[in-house]
Write a structure and sequence with these properties.
single chain, alpha/beta, Quinone Oxidoreductase, Chain A, domain 1, Rossmann fold, 2 domains, seven-stranded mixed beta sheet, 10 helices, 16 strands, 26% helix, globular, Quin_OxRdtase/zeta-crystal_CS
C-alpha cells in the first residue's frame, strides 16, 4: 500500500464498541520538533472507551476520530530541530493528552520531548501499557501528594491499570500501602508490595483499616467511595480524586474534617516516564498486561475493558 496511508481504528460517531472500525487513513507527517513513530503496540485505558461512548474527553475531540494515547514503537523519521531522538530509537509515550493522539494506528506524530526511551526490559506490548497509567500514579503520588517514607497510602481499585503501578510506586517511595480490590487479586497485590489488602465486596474499607495520610481514589463517587474515604484520612491528609475530580460532596465532607483534596488529570511528561522506565529496568516496578489484541479486535478489547474486571492493562498489538 502507499506510504501515504496507514491502518487505523477510527470512529465516525460516538457509541458502543461496534463503532470501532479499521480503515486506511492518511499517514501523518512530522512537523519541526516532532517525530514520526511506527507504532508496535497501543495501550487501552478507561478514558478510551468513555470517550468512544461520548463521555470522557469526547468534548475535546473531532469526528472522525482515532482513539488511543498510549503508544510504544520505533522512531521512523524526525522533524527539523529534533536533537534527542533518531530513527531507529525505541520509544514510548502518552502524547498530546487530552487532545487526540491517534494511538490506535500504525503511525503517530508528536513532539519529540513527549517521548521517553522504551524500557529495555519490556516488549513493546508491555511498554505500551505503561505511560498513561504510570504517569497518573506518579503525578498523583510524587508530584501532588509528595509521598514520603513512613506514610500510609490507601489506593482504591489497586488491581487496575493505574492501581497496580501506584502500589509499586508508593512502596518504592517508602510508604505503607493499603490496597482495595476483589479478594482473588490480593495475593498478587501483596507480591507487588501491598502491606494490607481489603476486599471491598465483603467489607467496607473504612471499617477495615486505620487512618491513612494519602488516599489515591481511582473509583470516585461510585458507592460513595470518595466521600467515605474522608473517614480514614488523617486531619491534614490528602485525597487525590482521579476519575471525575473533586465532587461537591467530597469537598464539603473533607472541609469539615480538615482533609485536603485535589483533582488530577494526567499530563504528558517524558521526564517522569523516564524515571518510571528506570524503576522498571531495575526491577522495582513491573507492568501487568492481562491480554493483547489485534487492531481488528479493538471492539472486543473495549467490551472486556468496560467490565472493569481486568488485572492490569489491555493492549492492541498493531503489528502481529
Amino acid at each position: 500500500m502507499s506510504e501515504q496511508t496507514m491502518r487505523a481504528v477510527t470512529i465516525k460517531e460516538f457509541g458502543g464498541p461496534e463503532v470501532l472500525a479499521v480503515e486506511r487513513v492518511a499517514r501523518p507527517e512530522p512537523l519541526p520538533t516532532e517525530v514520526l513513530v511506527r507504532v508496535h503496540a497501543a495501550g487501552i485505558n478507561p478514558v478510551d472507551w468513555k470517550t468512544r461512548a461520548g463521555h470522557g474527553m469526547a468534548g475535546l475531540q473531532t469526528l472522525p476520530l482515532t482513539l488511543g494515547w498510549d503508544v510504544s514503537g520505533v522512531v521512523e523519521e524526525v522533524g527539523f530541530g529534533v536533537t534527542t531522538l533518531a530513527p531507529g530509537d525505541e520509544v514510548c509515550a502518552m502524547p498530546w493528552f487530552p487532545r487526540p493522539a491517534g494511538g490506535y494506528a500504525e503511525f503517530v506524530t508528536a513532539p519529540s520531548r513527549q517521548f521517553a526511551r522504551k524500557p529495555a526490559s519490556l516488549s513493546h506490548a508491555e511498554a505500551a501499557a505503561l505511560p498513561l497509567a504510570a504517569l497518573t500514579a506518579w503525578q498523583a503520588l510524587v508530584d501532588t501528594a509528595h509521598v514520603t517514607g513512613g506514610q500510609r497510602v490507601l489506593i482504591h481499585a489497586a488491581a487496575g491499570g493505574v492501581g497496580h503501578l501506584a502500589v509499586q510506586i508508593a512502596k518504592h517511595l517508602g510508604a505503607e500501602v493499603v490496597a482495595t480490590a476483589r479478594g482473588h487479586r490480593h495475593t498478587w497485590l501483596r507480591e507487588l508490595g501491598a502491606d494490607e489488602t481489603i476486599d471491598y465486596t465483603s467489607r467496607r474499607f473504612e471499617e477495615a483499616t486505620g487512618a491513612v495520610d494519602v488516599v489515591l481514589d481511582l473509583v470516585g463517587a461510585a458507592d460513595g467511595t470518595d466521600v467515605r474515604s474522608v473517614a480514614v484520612t488523617r486531619p491534614g491528609g490528602l485525597i487525590v480524586s482521579v476519575p471525575s475530580g473533586v465532587s461537591d460532596a467530597l469537598a464539603a465532607a473533607a472541609g469539615e474534617a480538615d482533609v485536603r483534596t485535589s483533582p488530577l488529570l494526567v499530563e504528558p511528561d517524558a521526564a517522569a516516564l523516564t524515571a518510571v522506565a528506570g524503576l522498571v529496568d531495575s526491577g522495582a516496578v513491573r507492568v501487568e498486561v492481562e491480554r493483547s489484541f489485534g487492531l481488528e479486535q479493538a471492539g472486543e478489547a473495549h467490551r472486556l475493558g468496560e467490565t472493569n474486571r481486568t488485572r492490569g492493562k489491555l493492549v492492541l498489538e498493531v503489528a502481529r
